[in-house]
Amino acid sequence: MTMSDPIADMLTRIRNANTAKHDTVDIPLSKMKVSIADILVDEGFIEKYDIVDAGSFKNIRVTMKYTGDKKGKVITGIKRISKPGLRIYVGKEDIPSVLGGLGIAILSTNKGVITDKAARKEQVGGEVLAFVW
Question: How far is residue 102's CA from residue 22's CA, in Å, rounded to a whole number?
Answer without folding.
Answer: 24
